[in-house]
Amino acid sequence: MRNLLNPKWLLLLNTLPLVLLAALCYAEFTVVHSLLPAPSVALWGWFGLVLAGLGLSTLGYALVQIQRSQPVGVAYCVLALAAHSAFIMFYLNLDTQILPRDVPRWMVPTDLLLYVGTFLMPTLAYAVFALVVRLTPTDPPPTVAINFLLAFVGPLAWYILLLVPFSALQGQSSAWLWETVFPLILVSGVVGFLFFLVRGVYIMGLRRAEDAEFHFVWKLLVSLLLPLMGLLVNNGLFWGGLSSSRSHEEGVFGNFNSPWFYILAVLNGVLLCMPDQSGRWTRLAVFLGRSVLLSYTFYFFVVFLPYLPLSILAILLIGLGFLMLTPLVLLVVHVRELSTDLDYLQRFFSRSWLRACLVAGALTLPLIITGSYLHNRWMLHQALAYRYTPDYSRRYDLDAAALANTLNIIKDHKERPFGFSMGRQVPYLSTLFNWLVLDNLTLSDDKIASLEQLFLGTEPEAAEEFRNPGFTARTTRPVLSGLTARTHYDAAQQAWVSWLDLQVNNTDSTETAGEYATTLTLPVGCFVSGYYLDMNGRREPGILSEKKAAAWVYAQIVNETQVKDPGLLAYDDQGRLNLRVYPVVRQAARTTGLQLLHKEPVVLTVDGRRITLGDSTARPLTATVLTPDKTVAYISAAAKQRLPLVRRTPYYHFLLDVSAAAGNQKAAYARRVASLRAQQGGTGPARFTLVDAYATPVRESAQWQNAVAQHESQGGFYLDGALRQLLFDTQQHPSNTYPIIVVVTDNLNKAILGPGLAELSSAYPESDQFFVLAADGSLEPHSLRQNMHVVRAAETMPAGPRLVRAWPTAARPQAYLPDNAAADIVLNRARVSVPAPGAAGSRWQTGLLLHGYQQWQAFHPEATNEQRVPFLRASFRTGIMTSFTAYLALENAAQKAALARKQEQVINANAALDLDESPADTTTNVPIDEEVWVLLAAGLLLAFWQLRRTMQIS
After folding, report:
1. In Å, what is the CA distance from 937 to each residue of 233, 540, 708?
2. In a 3-state reduction of DSSP, which class is residue 576?
3. Where are the membrane-spanning stretches (predicted)?
């Protein structure tokens, strides 16, 4: 263990953690510094200087000792213990001044006190270990008993302090006692207790040859029995009545219920308890096994390292508090055994080779875990790609069993802690998992349920409506009280530039803060190019940002107890424009507005009010407008009327539910299809697609019944994917026929459907409906655009084919357009690229190109992750909002910095991952912001007290 005195350890255990701590704290400071008062900013500066002093002094000392080939000295260890302990205590005392309460906690994802404790604790632990090695003679080693006796001077000092009548002292002028003496005694008691405890264990290893029998019993207790008991206690197997109210996958310090924790604990205990082997190859095998399991021992040491100061308090109350010290003692034993193995084996093997084996062994478990997580990431991303960004030109076949295992792990790791318990989180491993697999985001419960239904065929759970007992539904909300427009024609870009100004009021004078929300539909070719919200007497322009990040920041601000002034403008899933403003306080008016670019005059309806933008008497645009690269075309309503009318021949395309839940419906399907085709004439040859987790077209339509009979069901009824695949094929190959989509199933409610297929509307110009063929042979119409589960009772099967417009000519059509009085955007090329800087001639043409690319990407979602960042950058650069971006007006610089950080996180992650559970779940998780150790200690004491009572009763 004397290798611990090598000064190179200081670079790993002090310099690196302090650099990470400084980087994390600086990242938090850059976000919240504008909200901090001057005294807090000064404290940040002082603590930063002290932290830099601690790090640089240790770095200089380490480099000097390395240069001199000298070990770490006693003086450094004592000074490091004193300095770093003082830093933690002063930070704890000034925590709420460094980060005041009025700073929103959603801007600081992790409590800074947790950062300080986590990254300074390795230095404290190293200093204790190094002191033990330096102050313990090896020949002859001191007695063990005196060290264990001295170890309990610390708990005894704490016990005496706890017996002091606090009420008597509080009546005196003794602030110095509580602010200086009391913390000094507490820290000294902890350091002294841990020093003599570790020293006693270390001496027992030195005296192993003197009493081999006692040494074996001691190692059996520390290496095997106590770790197993600790796992059982943590996992609730001794909790009696509490076990019924806790999940078997939860634990006080984390979820250690995996069988692997027990297997590795037993294996580790057996290897450490094995007597010294005389054969070099047997001893080498034991050494390699101990090296592999060193990371297991070290992991639990790191997990319990922050709790070591509380171990004394737990020991005072119940004897099982010693379980919290087991990882510390076990690490000393483990390192001592490895050191003994090294001393023996270097007589037969080179020391450098043995050290390489030690390092390789210690990295084995971390590499296995990392590899497993990377496999989980690959499985998840494959599933997400198929569900949300599929490539319609390829076939998918995912391993459902492996995906189920991945989803179960995700559910365990994403479970939030309950109270002071870590719940189903696995300390540090959950953080690693979330980083490697989820890109530090999350996968909402809705998406997990959707993937399970898709690939595993599980039934979706009915959503339970949650209602706060003290919540009363609002009967009134802020309303639109004024609507004006400012518009002018920009000759340079040959388009209208209009500002739509809205004034909103709260009609309920008793409502302190309400949210104004409205939805409006923009005509084709009308693009959002600006937004503002008046706040605090100034006009704040909106920031064009990534849509999910903007929505998340808006939700966090709305949930604050201190009301701020956000405004959000974004497209919804149906392509409509959503505007939200918060707060609208009592009857005080709020003013907000948005800028629109449009090629022609338009008429908008906002909350029932109609307003015209542009000169309605201007001559209509009769020519097709192309982008400079001629990839996207804008066809006005007047220009569309000049296109030839054509009548395409319809044909039935049956989507047959062959999922596992459909059961044996083959004969019933045949009767329904035959009856429908007999009743409805005038259609071309029918086509069939078998739909379960995958959409399988039947090549020979006449053999569709044989295909159904031979099909092996996989997963659930993924109707959304089948519809998208069908519409993609239809749009990619324009022809003189079009499909009448008929879904054959007994229960559409079990189908996996999205919010709608409005973004694919160019693929169904004749009609935006599909039909469900019921058991009685009737056809139920449903909308392809939205609310696909809802029956559109007012519509029926069309009497005949509808006329559509062929573009550019009827002889060689590239697209078919609905015959209506609305403009359309048409793709003139098979592929549309993200516009490069300066690619479009004007800002409106840039908007046309962006929305054209957005339309192309709807049919090519496989390009989402690859082209998302360039697409977002192009939107940011031009100020044209798309379905992937949103305008957000914020009040202060801290909110803007938090938005920038969250946006960067979202952009670098998979597009299908989530920032929160769901849009409806807008609660903000606020970490414990003060007195963290006191609160944590209280939780532990309650848990141990309940454990003790339960064991006494039993």
Report:
1. 17, 46, 63
2. coil
3. 43-64, 71-92, 112-133, 145-169, 181-204, 216-239, 259-275, 287-307, 313-333, 353-374
**How high is the pLDDT of residue 514?**
85
The count of C-alpha atoms lying within 13 angstroms of the C-alpha of 578, restricted to the half-sphere facing its C-beta, is 16
pLDDT in tens, 86-125: 888 888 888 888 988 888 888 887 778 778 888 888 888 8
φ and ψ at 452, to 5 degrees? Answer: -65, -40
Q: Which of 474-488, 680-694, 773-787, 818-832 is the most confident on average?
A: 818-832
User: What are 796-819's pLDDT values in tens digits?
Assistant: 555 567 899 999 999 999 999 999
Give the CA angle between residues 723, 727, 730 to the nearest 5°.
145
The CA–CA distances, whole Å, from 688 to 369, 397, 707, 720 equal 45, 20, 10, 16
Phi, psi angle pair for 81, to nearest 5°: -60, -45
Alpha helices (H) in 815-892, listed in sequence order: 843-859, 864-878
Fold of 647-802: Rossmann fold (3.40.50)
Which strands, in side-by-side order, build the sheet including 543-546? 514-520, 577-584, 567-571, 885-889, 543-546
Integer CA distances (angstroms), 16 to 9, 30, 119, 472, 514, in order? 10, 21, 9, 53, 48
Smallest CA-to-CA distance from 278 within 348, 338, 224, 334 is with: 348
CB atoms under 10 Å from CB of 529, counted, come to 23
C-alpha to C-alpha distance for 727 and 858, rounded to whole angstroms: 11
Compute the distance between CA of residue 235 and CA of residue 421 in angstroms, rounded to an integer: 11
Closest CA to 889 of 584, 480, 607, 592: 592
Domain extent listing, the chain: 1-135, 647-802
Which strand ranges, in their side-by-side order, compose the sheet holding 649-657?
695-697, 684-691, 649-657, 737-744, 769-773, 779-783
| pLDDT 10s digits, 227-240 | 888 888 877 765 54
| SS3 per residue for 357-415 | HHHHHHHHHHHHHHHHHHHHHHHHHHHHHHHHCCCCCCCCCCCHHHHHHHHHHHHHHHC
C-alpha to C-alpha distance for 195 and 565, rounded to whole angstroms: 54
- Cα separation, 622 vs 615, in Å, equals 16
- CA–CA distances in Å: residue 279 to residues 287, 345, 421, 713: 12, 10, 47, 58
CA gyration radius, the chain: 35
243-288 pLDDT, tens digit each: 444 445 666 777 888 889 999 999 999 999 888 878 889 999 999 9
Q: pTM here?
A: 0.84
pLDDT digits (tens, 9 = 90+) for 597-615: 999 999 999 999 999 999 8
Kindly state the tokens that stand for 236: 């609730």
Give the integer Cα–Cα distance in Å for 127 and 79: 9
Q: Within 13 A of 67's CA, how many CA atoms are on the CB side?
A: 6
